[in-house]
UniProtKB/TrEMBL annotation:
The chain crosses the membrane at residues 20-38, 75-92, 129-150. InterPro entries: VanZ-like. Residues 23-144 form the VanZ-like domain. The keyword Transmembrane helix applies. It comes from the Bacteria. This is VanZ family protein.
Length: 163
């Protein structure tokens, strides 16, 4: 079986459709974040209240506050985006580019905060950008850890086959 080579003569690890899919997932995640940020403060609060009520039924009153639910949502959205950017860079480049993934997600977080200035009842907050960036870092690091575990398992299996 002959493997396809890129313009530099290196073996292509991932086909173009896989690369396109990863970048499309990044764009889709960004669109979802944009949609959430487009909701007015009242709409966003009502949405947070649904999650808050659910968790209060599970764990009792006082377990979570609206503030924690909102900040956790910021963190989770950008953890997903950081993971997807890290995956897209890995698929595109064939190696991890964690700093670039975090930088891209953090830059998008800046635009997200600026976008919220124009939404009724919302505001641009540096603390939200920091939470978003921390989430992106965690998401990218989760992918890095998964790839490390997979790589070690493959090396171990190859060593067992060799012996």
């Amino acid at each position: 079986m002959q493997q396809e080579l890129d313009s530099l003569g290196k073996i292509k690890r991932f086909p173009l459709p896989a690369k396109m899919l990863c970048w499309a997932l990044c764009a889709a995640c960004m669109a979802v974040i944009f949609w959430f940020s487009s909701r007015t403060a009242a709409e966003s609060s009502a949405q947070s209240d649904i999650f808050l009520a659910f968790f209060q039924k599970l764990f009792g009153d006082g377990f979570l506050t609206d503030f924690i639910v909102r900040k956790s949502a910021h963190f989770a959205e950008f953890a997903g985006l950081g993971f997807l950017f890290a995956l897209a860079f890995y698929i595109q480049c064939g190696k991890t580019k964690t700093p670039f993934a975090v930088l891209c997600a953090s830059a998008y977080a800046v635009t997200d905060e600026i976008h919220q200035i124009f939404v009724a009842g919302r505001a641009c907050k540096i603390q939200d950008w920091a939470i978003d960036t921390a989430g992106a870092l965690l998401g990218a690091l989760i992918l890095f850890a998964l790839l490390s575990v997979i790589s070690k398992a493959k090396k171990k299996k190859a060593a067992q086959i060799k012996n």
